[in-house]
Write a structure and sequence with these properties.
- The complex is a heterotrimer of chains A (about 400), B (about 300) and C (about 290).
- Chain A is α/β, with parallel strands linked by helices and about 400 residues long.
- Chain A contains 12 helices and 14 strands.
- In chain A, the strands form 3 sheets. A 7-stranded mixed β-sheet of chain A has the order 7-6-8-9-10-13-14, sandwiched between helices.
- Chain A starts with a helix and ends in a 19-residue tail after the last strand.
- Chain B is mainly alpha-helical and about 300 residues long.
- Chain B has a domain of about 210 residues.
- Helices cover about 80% and strands about 0% of the residues of chain B.
- Chain B has 17 helices and 2 strands.
- A two-stranded antiparallel sheet of chain B has the order 1-2.
- The longest helix of chain B is centred in the N-terminal third of the chain and has 27 residues.
- The radius of gyration of chain B is 19 Å and the shape is globular.
- Chain B starts with a helix and ends in a 7-residue tail after the last helix.
- By secondary structure, chain C is mostly helical.
- Chain C has a domain of about 200 residues.
- Chain C is built from 11 helices and 2 strands, in the order ααααββααααααα.
- In chain C, strand 1 and strand 2 form a beta hairpin.
- The chains are: A alpha/beta (about 400), B mainly alpha (about 300), C mainly alpha (about 290).
- The interface between A and C is large, with 41 and 46 residues.
């Protein structure tokens, strides 16, 4: 049982620092404070913690190299409890009361969606590190920038590999929530563009446990590929029930959860041959990635997950833009971030005119013999996909 | 003491506060007004008639979607869009209330329990219209002070309505339903119709609150506007202050909002448990709320 | 592409629905007992289920204990938890207006869920013990569901034997039928309340143990089962304990068919409409119980 005393101490320190700053406002000029709300408690507590750790490691790295614009960088983090309305209040606080110099994004699409309404209102540029939904960038906002790949391309690798191997039909299911819906619709578009036939698409409510009716409908259509826009709990139920109903697609991929080690822990052998997608893996050939993984492991005694890498990467991109603009003015930063193209330990960064991420690539992996093998794209793969997925009774 | 003597200074204070408060505190006040209105509307049906509406957040949620759709698809201004939130809310109350209000206590509560889940499921289902699980994004709000006044207005309207009901024959009839419905019927009251009126009224206000909330939050989605915890919170706030009274929901909403602010900022990991403990304490120790306790020691006018 | 629904598919869904329904029945029985005897709407019932699931998970994870055997542990543990809560808190809202019991049990449930999250984090767990299915003709009968169904059946049968053949069991039924008369007959209703609440929690725990083998375990997992349990009680009739069993089966089948013929998103709506219809047209439940 890991108790995040680190987080509480950091938060306590941040709050105390803030209180002191409130009494001696002029002193704030020595620091470049970056405000953010993060899900330290609630449903997103774990990835939220990773996000915070990514920010903190970035803060350390920047300060070790002399700070930014001649000042020390300090993250000011509050707990939004994984709740969008709470994040709204907190960003109001950060911007109007604490008057932080800069803001970065929280964890997850729904929270970022809500929080960004505040930053946009005050024309405070927000570097969104962990939001993956296109609709957030279709609101015409000017001061919001994306770091990770959007939900729509999560299963791009699955579709690509399927088409390469001449597979024709695909069935798509998704949980009826913001991210999963986007992932599903993106997958469907990609599949259609590549000439595949989408034979089935259904959404199920969050919390569904019995997938028999949905799966039996899919079984009757016998698709080559099944793609699921899912989280953990539904992926567990769906995969097990596919085994029970003896549904044997040639490829089966899931969005979230398929990349975390817990997935295999939860399902054991049933997880074999499942494809999952990931924003980042620690063995990818990105600049500075080895140092990042080393420092992170030293600080927190475990290897980083993609959320930390994304937070770190976003912070690095942000810092670079601040350096180039030589200012914290939102319009100047916006100019820089729009034209900036760089690769961090997290991967490539480049955005279109909406601030929407177009360069970063997802990777696809497959569980083979209890190990996660990266199988796509070819230039970073460390193994070949085990294709086709053998039927359940042949394993 | 005439109620206007208390009300006018309070209203004046409310009116000038935005000039002196920071954005964060104005946000906080908006949420306080929201809770006053929600707790107060729950009070109108459950405080007066004793029929426990356990799915009340459904009316709030419907209000948010109504406003969101009117603003994004029909180009309405947020103020009329928010006010329009009461219409579908009242329609839902009519459709559900008409059959369900004839159920006995526990069964009415059970039928209301599922209401918010079902409305949420329906909203998700008609995704072509409502955006399904992804929700609807509204244009970013420019200034929150107008919302402050709008919410304050609703909070005042609910409180005023409660005051008028409590001091009217309608109110007396509702209270008698709570005390002994069979006797009330025997006296010739059309309890079914009375309950329905109260229910409709109690649904209209959350609809409006939801309507303004949609504009304030700039985003509505099923999971965040139909949660059970919102219903529980409005119930607890009403009970904490004193249900069946005019000022009870106001006191409860204000005190608990402040308490949540202070507590939650300090206890990162156990704030849910603390809220649960508070609920237990309210139910066991102070079921009549603060006003109930005060009434034991001071002669308070019945009208508050 | 339009899915052509065959008879086999319907049969498959019905079979799976029945198996899952057995689980619903088990869980609902506990809630029905509590409601019948004490007129308490126990919203914390789902939390007891969750705790039972965690007991099973940890016993499996740490000691490799067969999850079906771990029921022998989860039931007594939760019986004790339920009894303690009853003795300390719930006894105050016995026969009280429904709002009190709703709120009190809701408060208890969020305290327990928060504590579970603190202790075990919100990470998803599951017991990977039994997977796959038996194939009978064209129908796949899920192994874990079948064993859960049989276990649920056995436990329910044991519960019925308890209720009908033992003194305490008969006292429980008597109290549930008419509390004052039971008191007059010398039954210590306070003690009966204690035993019933503990029993209800124990049955929920058994359900949780079974769920852990099939689905994911996490602090909020119990919520969905509470509403389903109420549905079952309404369908079967309050206080009608065999009715709860058939109500559970019926719910499982209705849910499955609704998802098959409509879409998964509408199953809740269908279930709710069913609830309201039954409440309005046949409040004593489809099989006749107390109103």
């Amino acid at each position: 049982m890991k108790r995040p005393t680190n987080a509480t101490v950091q938060l306590g320190a941040a709050l105390t620092a803030l209180a002191l700053l409130g009494l001696a406002a002029p002193a704030a000029a020595q620091e470049l404070r970056i405000g953010a709300s993060i899900s330290l408690t609630g449903t997103y507590a774990k990835p939220g913690k990773y996000t915070q750790e990514g920010y903190l490691l970035c803060e350390k790295d920047i300060n070790d190299k002399g700070g930014l614009l001649g000042k020390k960088v300090k993250f000011v983090v509050y707990d939004d409890k994984s709740e969008p309305p709470t994040a709204i209040k907190l960003y109001e606080k950060l911007i109007t009361e604490d008057k932080v110099e800069l803001v970065m994004g929280p964890y997850s699409s729904p929270v970022t969606n809500a929080a960004s309404t505040v930053s946009e209102k005050y024309k405070k540029l927000m570097m969104a590190s962990l939001a993956a939904t296109t609709s957030i960038w279709e609101r015409g906002y000017k001061y919001l920038f994306m770091t990770i790949s959007p939900a729509e391309v999560y299963l791009e690798g699955l579709v690509e590999l399927a088409v390469e191997r001449g597979l024709k039909t695909i069935a798509v299911i998704n949980e009826d929530t913001l991210f999963s819906k986007a992932a599903a619709s993106g997958t469907i578009e990609l599949a259609k563009k590549k000439g595949m036939q989408v034979v089935f698409h259904e959404a199920y409510p969050k919390g569904t446990t019995d997938f028999t009716p949905i799966l039996i409908k899919i079984k009757s259509l016998n698709p080559d590929v099944i793609a699921a826009g899912s989280y953990f709990d539904d992926a567990v139920a769906t995969t097990r029930q596919m085994k029970e109903l003896d549904i044997n697609p040639k490829m089966y991929g899931v969005t979230v959860g398929g990349d975390l080690p817990e997935f295999y822990q939860l399902l054991g052998k049933t997880a074999e041959f499942v494809y999952g997608s990931s924003q980042w893996e620690s063995h990818l050939p990105y600049p500075g990635i080895k140092e990042f993984v080393e420092s992170y492991t030293k600080m927190w005694n475990r290897e980083p997950a993609y959320h930390a890498a994304a937070a770190y990467g976003a912070c690095q991109v942000f810092a670079e833009a601040i350096k180039r603009a030589n200012s914290i003015d939102s319009d100047k930063l916006r100019e820089e971030l729009l034209k900036l193209k760089m690769t961090t330990a997290f991967g490539d960064y480049a955005v279109d005119e909406r601030g929407f991420q177009i360069a970063h690539k997802m990777v696809l992996h497959q569980w083979q013999n209890g190990k996660k093998v990266t199988v796509w794209p070819a230039n970073v793969a460390d193994g070949k996909p085990a294709f086709p997925t053998p039927p359940w009774n042949a394993r | 003491m005439r109620p206007a003597a208390i009300a006018l200074p309070v209203l004046a204070l409310v009116a000038v506060l935005p000039a002196v408060l920071s954005g964060y505190h104005v946000s906080f006040m908006i949420q306080v007004f929201m809770w006053i209105a929600l707790a107060g509307s729950w009070n109108i049906i459950s405080g007066f008639t004793g029929y426990v509406s356990f799915g009340h957040v459904a009316f709030f949620g419907i209000g948010t979607y109504t406003a969101a759709l009117l603003i994004t698809k029909a180009g309405w201004h947020w103020l009329p869009a928010g006010l329009a939130g009461c219409v579908p809310a009242m329609m839902l109350a009519l459709v559900i209330g008409y059959p369900c209000l004839r159920l006995k206590g526990p069964y009415f509560a059970i039928s209301m329990l599922g209401l918010n889940e079902v409305v949420r499921a329906l909203v998700s289902y008609f995704e072509g219209f409502t955006g399904g699980g992804a929700g609807i994004s509204l244009p970013p709000i420019e200034a929150i002070v107008p919302v402050y006044y709008a919410m304050a207005g609703v909070a005042f309207a609910v409180t005023l309505t409660t005051y008028l009901i409590l001091n009217s024959r309608f109110g007396l009839r509702l209270l008698s339903i709570r005390e002994d419905e069979i006797a009330a019927e025997a006296m010739g009251m059309n309890t079914a119709r009375l309950k329905l009126y109260a229910f409709l009224l109690s649904a209209a206000f959350p609809g409006i609150v939801g309507g303004f909330y949609a504009w304030y939050a700039s985003h509505v989605e099923p999971l965040s506007v139909f949660p059970l915890i919102t219903t529980i919170t409005m119930i607890i706030m009403c009970l904490f202050g004193g249900s069946g009274t005019v000022l009870g929901p106001v006191i409860g909403a204000v005190l608990l909002s402040v308490l949540q602010e202070l507590v939650w900022a300090r206890f990162l990991f156990v704030h849910q448990a603390l809220f649960g403990a508070l609920i237990v304490a309210v139910v066991l120790i102070m079921p009549r709320g603060i006003l109930g306790i005060l009434r034991q020691y001071y002669p308070l006018p019945r009208s508050i | 592409m339009q899915v052509h629904i065959t008879g086999t598919m319907v049969l498959q869904v019905v079979v799976s629905g029945l198996l899952v329904g057995g689980l619903y029945a088990l869980v609902a029985l506990g809630l029905s007992l509590v409601f019948g005897v004490m007129r308490v709407i126990n919203v914390a019932h789902g939390t007891f289920l969750m705790l039972g699931a965690y007991v099973t998970f940890w016993l499996f994870d740490l000691y490799g204990l067969n999850p079906f055997l771990s029921i022998l542990v989860s039931v007594p543990v939760l019986f004790a938890v339920g009894a303690v809560l009853q003795r300390l808190l719930v006894f105050r809202v016995v026969n009280a207006p429904e709002l009190s019991s709703l709120l009190l049990t809701f408060g208890i449930s969020i305290v327990l869920a928060n504590m579970a999250m603190l202790a075990w984090t919100a990470d998803y767990r599951s017991v990977e013990f039994l997977t796959g299915s038996f194939v009978i003709g064209q129908i796949a009968v899920s192994k874990p569901r079948l064993i859960s169904f049989v276990t649920a059946l056995v436990i329910t049968a044991l519960a019925f034997v308890f209720l009908h053949k033992t003194r305490t069991g008969k006292a429980i039924r008597a109290t549930s039928q008419h509390r004052e008369v039971a008191q007059v007959c010398g039954i210590n209703v306070g003690r009966i309340d204690l035993v019933t609440f503990g029993l209800g929690a124990g049955l929920a725990a058994a359900g949780g143990s079974l769920v852990s083998v099939m689905f994911a375990v996490y602090p909020e997992m119990g919520q969905v089962y509470v509403f389903k349990s109420f549905l079952v009680i309404v369908l079967g009739g309050a206080g009608n304990y065999p009715g709860a069993f058939f109500g559970g089966l019926l719910l499982g089948v209705v849910e499955g068919l609704a998802s098959l013929f409509l879409t998964a998103q509408l199953t809740e709506v269908v279930a709710y409409i069913l609830l309201v219809l039954v409440l309005l047209l046949r409040p004593q439940g489809l099989l006749g119980g107390r109103i």
